[in-house]
Give the backbone structure.
Amino acid sequence: MLEGKAIVSETDMLQTMQQDALNLAAKALDFFDVTEATEIARFIKTEFDVAHGAGWQCIVGTDFGSFVTHCHGCFIYFCIGSLAILLFRGSAGPDAEGDQFLALEKVVA
C-alpha cells in the first residue's frame, strides 16, 4: 500500500460506508501496483457491489475530471498519496425517486 493516510475531499456517505471505501482502497493497493488503476477500480467497484448492492462506479487515477449524477449518500472522493479515487452509486433502481440524485463536479489536477 502507498505510505500515508487517505484524505477525503468530498463525501456524503455515512461514516461506516466511508471507512469501508477506505479499507477496500487500502486492500486494493496491497494487491495491485499503483500503476494498475483499472484493476484497483475494478476491485473496489466489485467489492462495493457485493457489500452495498449493485450500481457502484469507481474511477481511479492521478489526473481526471468528472461530472456525475449519484444517489444521495453514495458518493466519496478521496486521495491516497497521488492516487485519486472517486466512488459513487450512479444507477437508478426501479424505486428511485428523482430527488435522491445529486450532480457533482470534481476535477483533479
Notes: Helices lie at 15-31, 37-52. The chain has two helices and six strands. The longest helix spans residues 15-31.
